[in-house]
Amino acid sequence: MAEAAQPAPDGAKTPLERLLSIFTDVRAGEGPTALLMLMNIFALLICYSIIKIVREPLILLGGGAEMRSYTAAGQALVLMGFVPVYSWFASRVDRVKLVIGVSLFFILNIELFALAVAARVPYVGVAFFIWVGIFNMSLVAQFWSYANDIYTKEAGDRLFPIIVVGMTAGAPLGSFITGRWFAAGVTPQLILQASAGLLVVSLLLYAVINARETRRTRAPEEALAPGGGFSLVFRSDYLRLIALLVVLLNVVNTTGEYLIARLLTSHASALAAADPTFNRQAYIGAFSAGYQFWVNVTALGLQAFVASRLVKYTGLRGVLLALPLIALGGYSIIAAGVGFAVVRWIKTAENATDYSIMNTARQLFWLPTSREEKYKAKQAIDTFFVRTGDLLSAAVVYVGTTALRMGVGGFAAVNVALTVVWIAIALLILRRHRSLARLTPATAAA
Predict the structure, then answer these.
(1) Which end of the chain has less Cβ packing within 10 Å, N or C?
(2) Number of folded domains in the chain?
(3) Euclidean distance between the first and the last CA atom of the chain, given in angstroms as a whole number
(4) Domain around 423
């Protein structure tokens, strides 16, 4: 990469850059690309939210709730094959061909699934559910690989928090739109066409961003060296720590989701026992909608007004430790035996922080890494190791409910112990990150 152009004085900022500076430190010349990146991840998250909702009736009506649970293992197995293929392709094309090629591959997949759904192909819901688990994480991981490639560490520290706003805003909007479409009787295959259209928009945004950054830096793109994502992870102490942290984070969070689901079911059953006319399905649906609404609203507020300031004043340490400290306090309170209403707000705080501040930390990890690690190792960690965490959480729940007969307090205590390990891993990552940052030249595009 060629050395980044020096930013213009603050007085040369455009109105767009002055507007974005309300949320983070945006310098002259950085506004257009930052906004295009925000729009890109916004479109990707709307797309994923649409597909995530479409998968539910397909899997539940085509396989059942039990089959839905078993597909996590299928996703992990498929990812073991997908990650090496992605690494192979990434070594043979430049970055714009990589992101556009992968986007076109998934657009083709969506069109094939739409045809299969319309033709009522047997078990299409099961195949689609497994595919969604790869699609959503792969495209988001690739976006952040690209972002880490075009920004220096200094610029990424400032601009990633505002770009993540696109993620926190896109997810709830996609869910809202899709709910309205289903309520209006729009078929799943037609809704899938809308998601394919959003991927086309993302593809075009990549092309515009890449052309802009290539003109600004006048730096030729270097091909990635051969090698696979898994081998890169296992060769690096830093990346192994990140993989372990991601696994622990997902075990704790997914187990926490089980706790709130268990408490919600018990609470609804108690209300139904007291009132024969009580509608449990309506109560659970209304609760879930309100719960997700406040998680998303809180996450958007944290991302827009807290994340960038936390990075500015505390660096990676602040955004990395915020979530495990909240989880440690929250699950300690749950283990003490608090009621369902308190657990709801503890999980709201945890999930909102995960979707915003922790999401920012997970992207900042990669700024001081090599380009091969940004694309290949990140793809492995953000897909396979995330799913590994989900599988381990399922194992914790299975053993806890069948062999150990644990209650809510017992599961919360397990999460407390896991969170202590999580914090220890985070501290080791911070130490290694500081060492890498000192060795990383500021030579990527600003």
Answers:
(1) N
(2) 1
(3) 11
(4) 10-439
